[in-house]
Amino acid sequence: MLLCALSILFSLSRVYVASGASCDCSSLVIPVDVDVLIPKDPTDIFGGLKSNASSLRRLQATYDVYGVFCQPATVPPVNADVVQFLVHGFTYTNQYWSPPIEEFRNYSYSAFSCDRGLPSLAIDWVGVGLSSRPVNASDVQYATEAAVASQLARQLKNVSIFPGVQPFKKVIGIGHSAGSVLLNFAALVEGPRSPFDGLIMTGALIVEPNTLPPLPILSARDDDPLRWGGLDPDYLTTSSRNIFYGRDPATFSPRMLRFDNFTKDVGSIASLLQVPISTLPTQYTGPIAKVVGSEDQLLCPGTRCEDVAALNAMEKVLWPDAKSFEVVVAQGSGHDLNLDFLAEGPFNTFVRLVEQFST
């Protein structure tokens, strides 16, 4: 279903990332040639995975994908053959993994993992941030994004992405929220052929769309005509970010919430409505983990996340061939596990899982 070719990396430059002295970070712009079948109707909730040929269309395009590559500068690598591939969520950018604000050392997973000898590549989705933004939001679907992600993972294994950096033998995908759905879609399509040697899905559980609380979503051009007035109306954004944080306002900084609202980006209608693809069983054979906050207002209403054993049993059904499977509930964290005062707990979990999946 998916065909995609990736050309050589270009436009390398130093950038400042809130990451501390132990992390050396650089920007990358990566041209990706995409040849993929996507639904004609971007509101197809299964992203074309259950569609017949007549309801699909072929998308051929070249997109520039922006990313930030960080590697340990002063700490010996835990395993020089392993890299983390970081994928942000809906209406976020790569900065979710390293927000450059006051108290940043609490929030930068790129820095945290650098301190522990782990390199990472955090990308902007096609259509988001500094990556190419198609004129038609209907081109920005999970099939498109998954093809890009898989080919980038293969590129990380096949060529040097930065002078002095050898190709990696293992790529561990870490997604957040819709970024987890993206990695899930890639696993559905690729199965045992997946280039990802392990998947960590944060802010992601099986959920029926009609059980979600009302989301503060609107057309991006209506929200900010000065910034997004020329966009296709099917590029969306949020009017508020509060739902992404825990129920207790004492668990996060009001400065972070203001920063989050100020730096929000866009997402396509497909990236919002095609989330049910994560209810389909996969043939992926690598190790899987899901990490969710106990105070996640989207995924953990009431007492849903108190019974971790029940969550494990329910979620594992969709990953029957996985090498291992685990659900971790981060106590006190909200949906955006990286952005509250408790971030170090999930960060330690991510590092533990990456090291576990790398052996």
List strands and helices in order, with pairings.
Blueprint: E1 2-6, E2 10-14, E3 23-39, E4 56-72, E5 82-87, H1 109-115, E6 120-123, H2 142-158, E7 170-176, H3 178-190, E8 198-202, E9 217-219, H4 220-223, H5 225-228, E10 235-238, H6 254-263, E11 267-268, H7 269-273, E12 288-293, H8 308-316, E13 325-330, H9 344-357
Parallel strand pairs: 5-6, 5-7, 7-8, 8-12, 12-13
Antiparallel strand pairs: 1-3, 2-3, 3-4, 4-6, 9-10, 10-11
Describe this structure in words.
GO terms for molecular function: hydrolase activity. It comes from Mycena albidolilacea. It is a single chain. The two termini are 31 Å apart. Strand 7 (170-176), helix 3 (178-190) and strand 8 (198-202) form a beta-alpha-beta unit. This protein has a single domain (2-357), classed as Alpha/Beta hydrolase fold, catalytic domain (Rossmann fold), CATH 3.40.50.1820. The protein contains nine helices and 13 strands. The longest helix is centred in the middle third of the chain and has 17 residues, at 142-158. Strands 1, 2, 3, 4, 5, 6, 7, 8, 12 and 13 form a ten-stranded mixed sheet that branches. It has a three-stranded antiparallel sheet with strand order 9-10-11. The protein is globular, with a radius of gyration of 19 Å. The chain is 23% helix and 24% strand. Mean pLDDT is 91; it is low at 1-19. The chain is of the alpha/beta class. The chain has helices at residues 109-115, 142-158, 178-190, 220-223, 225-228, 254-263, 269-273, 308-316, 344-357, and strands at residues 2-6, 10-14, 23-39, 56-72, 82-87, 120-123, 170-176, 198-202, 217-219, 235-238, 267-268, 288-293, 325-330.
